[in-house]
Design goal:
This protein has about 150 residues and is mainly α. The chain has helices at about 5, 15-30, 35, 40-50, 55-90, 95-125, 135-145. α2 (about 15-30) runs antiparallel to α4 and α2 runs antiparallel to α6.
């Protein structure tokens, strides 16, 4: 470290390329936290983003992608499942039961694919390849670049 960085802690210390790939990989693997906690995966990705946003655009990009992907998949599916369940129980009763039976496998498939997609992103970033989630990656890149 240079003397300037040691005297002024507000100057972000650049990361090595290996560290960037490691943290980007961990951001994508945060999707696995959802398997144990149900909801904390996006929190882990957001923490990684906040910790390294000033030090590495690469890590910031991949952490924000992972965060948004998990919000869309986990919370979106949960909200949709809750709405269908609530309508089925309270408002319409058994009329929506067939719709719930049709949508449940779709929701479960989405929840099964999310960890696989996150692991694929982790593998790609650990091997120094660019990775972007479908629909989310381009939006995040445009937002972070200003």
């Amino acid at each position: 470290m240079t003397a300037e960085v040691l005297q002024n802690p507000s100057i972000p210390v650049p990361m090595s390329q290996a560290d960037e790939h490691t943290w980007a990989m961990l951001a994508h693997l945060s999707v696995l936290v959802n398997l144990f906690t149900g909801v904390l995966g996006p929190v882990v990705a957001l923490i990684i983003y906040l910790m390294f946003a000033n030090r590495s655009k690469y890590v910031a990009y991949h952490a924000m992608q992972s965060f948004l992907f998990q919000l869309v998949v986990w919370y979106g599916i949960g909200v949709m499942w809750g709405i269908v369940g609530l309508l089925c129980i309270v408002i319409i009763g058994f009329v929506l039961a067939p719709i719930a039976c049709i949508l449940t496998p779709i929701f479960l498939l989405g929840m099964a694919i999310a960890p696989i997609y996150g692991i694929w992103g982790a593998i790609q970033t650990s091997q120094d390849q660019d990775f972007k989630y479908w629909l989310i990656g381009d939006w995040v890149r445009g937002t972070l670049e200003g």
